[in-house]
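Note on ligand handling. Small-molecule inputs were canonicalized before submission; formal charges were left as drawn, and no protonation-state enumeration was performed. Where a ligand contained multiple stereocentres, the stereochemistry in the source SMILES was retained. For zinc ion, this procedure yielded the string shown in the input block below.
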Amino acid sequence: MNLLYDWNPYFVQRTAEMLDLLRRLVEIESPSHDKPAVDRCGRFVAEAARQAGAEVTLVSQSRTGDHLVARWPGRKEREKGFLLLCHLDTVWPLGTLAERPWRVEEEQGRVYGPGCLDDKASAVVVLAALEGLRDVGIALCRPVTVVFNADEEIGSRSSRALIEAESARAEVVFCVEPARPDGALKIARKGTARYTVTALGRATHAGSDHEQGVNAIEELAHQILRLQGMTDYAVGTTVNVGYVQGGTRTNVVPERATARVDVRVRTAAEGVRIAAAIESLRSISPAARLAVEGGLSRPPMEESPLTMGPFRRAQAIAADLGMSLTGGSTGGASDANFTAALGVPTLDGLGAVGDGAHSEDEYVLVSSLPERAALLAALLSRW
Ligand SMILES: [Zn+2]
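Structure output:
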């Protein structure tokens, strides 16, 4: 058996171990906003990475969980390495596990549980691949750095600088986020922007002084229609007013109303255009005022040689394993958006296959765990 080409059976034999690790990770709940919880998950992952041969550094944070940087040496220590990205945090609050515990559906070949696909299965795939290579004595062709960040689901504000600094030393970035439901890797991702639009009017008594009032909710309602109207599916731009708040009670003309807006764009140029359109919103009523805050949070990862180059190379390596890899795009952003925007070749969606991330139906296809570990082991040893 030539292990350079024949990773599949090796990892298939390890499926039960991988599932056991996934279960333990899912059972350490780690919502982004709960530092002690994310740190518990981080300590567990740090220990598992050390057992797989890594040197692990903790990057302490005061508000979010601590980020982990795990390093494995390569054959040639001096050259640029591989940077792998995955995250410790989930969108699920503490207590979700009690409502929806870990569940195995044998017939479907699926496992369920909060955060199982996004992104805990990715940590399992990464650790299994690196442990497998060490186990059979195959060297990494380049040094490997894995950043397990603690705040991906809330925009990676505290980990972005770390990820960008590490990517400067990387030949290629492998973002180990869930694959598309059909197993495809992600060669393009939309960029995201967030805005808060606040309308300010004048509060008066709705009965005795209605005429003197300036209704902020009315003003905001006009702005909401304008914002929603900026959606253009043909060019891939969506504008979603996802949250509104305003007023105090029915007998008061409301002084203040706020909308929060999520914007997705396919290209950087479209991002600039839509930002200008939103920032130039003006009030309809001359007596009302409008305040617009926000901007781009993750730049788009456009399909380009930076994503297609690594994809073609991965396709060739996968073909030797008997796998045919496909590529696709998604509206969701990830940390790959940051590294691709800096000009570092980036391949995304190398995590497990499944569906329902951020929903109650989130699941992982069990057979994809050994497949993805085999793919990653092959990439790390043959790139
Ligand atoms: Zn994720």
